Amino acid sequence: MEQNKSTVALGTENVWRLLLQYAIPSVIAMTATSLYNITDSVFIGQGVGALAISGLAITFPLMNLGAAFGSLVGVGASTLMSLRLGQKDYATANRILGNVFVLNLVLGVLYSVIVLTFLDPILYFFGASKDTISYAHDYMVIISLGNIVTHMYLGLNALLRAIGEPRKAMTTTILSVVINAILTPIFIYVMNLGIRGAAIATVLAQTSMLIWQIKIFSNKNNLVHLKRDTFSLKRRIVLDSLAIGISPFSMNVAASVIVIIINQSLTQHGGDLAVGAFGIINRVIFLFVMVVLGLNQGMQPIAGYNYGARQNERVTKVLTHTIFLATGVMLVGFIVGEFFPRTVASIFTREKELIDIAVTGLRIVFISTPIIGFQMVASNFFQSIGKPGKAIYLSLTRQVLFLLPCLLIFPSLFGVKGVWMSMPTSDILASLNAGYLLFIEYRKNKISK
To answer: DSSP string covering 272-319, please?
Structure first.
């Protein structure tokens, strides 16, 4: 079978070639995902207004929480899938696919019900004001109603990469972005739906691609496909998937808490436009972070398969290659943020005051980007080889042990600039921590030799 050959190649072909084969489609897909969010922000900023960008920024914690539950299932299951395919346990691989459907359905429904029930109090707690609450509310109602679709869509895309189909995963993401980019301006400008139009376009784009994903996984000629007897939850699969997925879940939850604190601090020291500036900065840095995440996704099945197959030299090679590429990507981000911040901010809004605030933030936040790629790859690496404890530790130290104290201290001393300064400070400390942990692993001969 075609997928069987793709899977075996993970343990035999040249590592550089494999990484590029898997990473390039993932990078394209993740870049498209980032452009997904950027185009929404641009259309909202230019077509609805500066306060709409601030309202959108208020929703980031809820969006991160939704992604957290999606990654809890999708990332954990895809890593487990790679490990089982490496061990040639195809029966369990098929059960993993069925269990992903059920878990995403259950978590998606629960999340949507809770969010919709307490939406306005949540948004006010996250930093919304009387001027931005309507924008945040209108956007999140529609996004929350489509949350189940989002969970399924992201989860199945992760599994497509895990079974050796990165190009199909890439195609799914790109088509989703294209559909969204076509529908968003129509709903905002032609149908005059405002920020709600952007949310509707997002849900419709993901729904169309989910239908295609289900069709792919329904093909009985594929090695891994949907079967009726695989939908019943298996305790071991659920626990193993959640144990591995708890790392990105914890990272996203911590990121949500951090964004809440950032929004509250910016509202206190700079007002609604400062929150909008963070929305712009977040979207821009997200573009480069998503490219690195694409590299990590390319690394994940290669590292997971070869670790399961005990081919440790290949595991080490894919790690070092990914670190090299990730560092190069973030160097480009550094150049953009430091030398072209006004051009970047002007893409999102024509409001001069908002642009000025965003320019200052971009220059401060992007100063540490050259080392962020290494930290991200190290965290994802431990997750990819089934060591969630170390991945969780690396994820949480950046957010909780380093960034949180900075956010509690710096703004009181430096105002809005203190918020921006907190981010590069925590990135530097987190990268040093990641380097130390990888060094310890090598000394213990758990990765090499």
So the answer is: HHHHHHHHHHHHHHHHHHHHHHHHHHHHHHHHHHHHHTT-HHHHHHHH
